[in-house]
Amino acid sequence: MLENQIQDPAPVEDDARYRTLVDAITDYAIFMLDPSGRVSSWNTGAQRFKGYKAEEIIGRHFSTFYTEEDRAQGLPAEALRQAREEGRFEREGWRVRKDGSRFWAHVLMDPIRTPDGQLIGFAKVTRDLSERREAEDSLKRSEEQFRILVQGVTDYAIYMLDPNGQVSSWNAGAQRIKGYTAREIVGQHFSRFYTEEDREAGGPVEALRIAREEGRFEREGWRVRKDGTRFWAHVIIDPIRSEAGKIIGFAKITRDITERLHAQKTLEQARQALFQSQKLDAIGQLTGGVAHDFNNLLMAVLGSLELLRKRLPPDPKALVLLENAVQGAQRGAALTQRMLAFARKQELKVEAVDVATLVSGISGLIERSIGPSVELRIAIPAELPPVLTDANQLETALLNLAVNARDAMPDGGVVTVEAMEIEIGEDAEIGLPGGGYVRLAVIDQGVGMDEATLQRAIEPFFTTKGVGKGTGLGLPMVHGLAEQSGGRLVVNSRLGEGTRIELWLPQAGDGEVRSAAPASLSEDRVVSRALTVLAVDDDELVLTNTAAMLEDLGHRVLTASSAAQALTLLARTKPDLVITDYAMPHETGLQLAQKIREKRPELPVILATGFAELPPGAGDDLPRLAKPYSQPELAQLLLDVCAD
Questions:
Q1: Buried b vs exposed e over 312-325: b needs ≥16 C-beta within 10 Å?
Q2: Which in 84, 422, 445, 534 has the greatest CB count within 10 A?
Q3: How far apart are CA 250 and CA 213, in angstroms?
Q4: Looking only at Cα atoms, what is the longest distance across the chain?
Q5: How many other β-carbons are positioned within 10 Å of the β-carbon of residue 420?
């Protein structure tokens, strides 16, 4: 019987171990409830989480841990019911500590039954997930902030693609740049943003391949908006991978940099224009210098030939050779004038010119020059305002352009000369000051020019014509005339599509009228008395030639090779007239004229110059003699200056 009263000690020991284990757990609140929901046990973890000691909480209903609003909704009773009827209750929610503070809890409740199924209570395990909850909330807030940020960006199209390239998200910037709403584009393939030629070349597929294999795709190129217009885009595509490394999509950022592209092109055009301008200025300086020296040589040649013609015996064969030499020198003089025109250093007689009248007056000459296979069409309104330029040079320029147009049409065609009045602002693309201009254009239907030829079209001596068929100074001369008149030459041409050459000239003011044509020169009109003339020139050939022409006209000549030497002669002689070159070393002819005026204001001074090298406005009151000048021109000027 005693044996029957002794109990097996094993269950008691197991129960003690269990209690010790549960009580040692501090990361979980593990406690029991009776069938009505009252706390019947309490571990250390429960005390740490909820703040109650065992003696404070055992016997109290577990609804104490619920928030007021959850109790009002009957959630504690619902938890017991669900555990009792469904065998388990699991939920997350807010719970309340002893001090009234809240924490986010994960709750697990299981029913406890006897072997025969009778409910004797509940096992309840609670874990404080406040830190995880805070982390999740923080992540959600961050994600929401990022979403708001991405949606708020309007200067960049930021969106996602799935692994196949279908659009899966869309921000406000994408809608602004590309024109699609999210409803219209989400689910569509991103290749629709590419141009047709890029799609045919496999651009979209290649972009995804590079992003997938190299980890990044970055490129600039043309993209297409919803309305079909194109814009220049900077595109970046980055792959998005899962933790396992699998590609789950792509992040795509697109920026519209069309304005930057245009700015770069404008800057490049400005650089090219500056380079071209500097190159032409350098060539112009060289050309002007060469032309000046060549003028002096021609002056000596033509003057000597002119005097030789008077003194040769009447030998027909010799006269033929002499005339041939004169014509050659005159052609050289014409070539020099073209060089000076390009260098913008020719002497221009700027006046108000009626373009309609001028073109009408030379239309017959143009028609004869271009021949019967080319039709000349003129479209110039009669009411066109006058322009400021040199009438004779403008006629020569138009004739040059018409002949060039004819040469560009070997099979014949139409040359059109048109003009129109244009008003431009200060920031006009052509680069001229704001104001009124007349745009005079010569248009042909010829072979046109490629880009390389167009870039060199106004360089002196550059020509596409055969050897001996062109000097390469036609367009440079027109360019120089335009620039020296305060206008601009514009050449537009495409290979196979003809050429349009525009000559922009400033309109003349109301008070400016065309001056009368100069009186014709005659060898019979000479000064009736012999003069003493002081000739000054640093070039010995020119000085000798000038002296010879003056002596041939019956005048006495004193010569000086510098301004200083001329002033020395003036101190001990009394000439009736001084003829001085302008460009001399140490002291110019203009400076010499000023000193002469100070000492002998009554003494006339003629300024001889090979090109427009005088500063603007300087020496305007002095009579001019343009090199190379002939003896009749010299005689005419002497008559004008020293008439009895």
A1: eeeeeeeeeebeeb
A2: 534
A3: 12
A4: 181
A5: 13
Q: Is the pLDDT of residue 7 over 80?
A: no
On whether the CB atoms of residues 474 and 407 are closer than 8 A, the answer is no
The average pLDDT across 35-54 equals 91
Helix, strand, coil shares of the chain, percent, nearest 5, are 45, 25, 35
Residue appearing with tokens 């699991």 = 90
Q: Can you give the three-state secondary structure of 38-70, one letter per residue?
A: EECCCCHHHHHHHCCCHHHHCCCEHHHHECHHH
H-type alpha helices, 244-378? 258-311, 316-342, 355-370
Residue 268 token pair: 């490049």
For residue 117, give Cα distances in angstroms to 39, 112, 239, 343, 369: 21, 9, 57, 117, 125
For 132, the 3-state DSSP assignment is helix
Partners of 122 in the beta sheet?
33, 111
- How is residue 352 annotated by DSSP? E
pLDDT confidence tier of residue 365, bands split at 50, 70 and 90: confident
Spatial CB neighbours of 294, under 8 Å, sequence gap ≥ 6: 332, 336, 339
Question: Can you give the length of the chain in residues?
Answer: 644
Q: Is 283 exposed, middle or buried (0-12, 13-18, 19+ CB in 10 A)?
A: middle
- What would the mean pLDDT of 488-498 be, rounded to a whole number? 87
DSSP code per residue over 93-124: EEEE-TTS-EEEEEEEEEEEE-TT--EEEEEE
**Sign of the CA dihedral running 277, 282, 287, 292:** positive
pLDDT digits (tens, 9 = 90+) for 366-390: 888 888 888 999 999 988 999 998 8
Work out the number of other CB atoms within 10 angstroms of the CB of residue 172: 16
- Residues 242 and 123: their CA atoms lie apart, in Å, by 39
Hey, which bits of 141-287 come out as E strands? 156-161, 217-224, 230-241, 247-256
Centre a 10 Å sphere on the Cβ of residue 141 and count the other Cβ atoms it contains.
10
Contact 347, 624 (CB under 8 A): yes
**What are the tens digits of pLDDT across the range 63-75?**
999 999 999 999 9
pLDDT digits (tens, 9 = 90+) for 275-285: 655 655 655 55
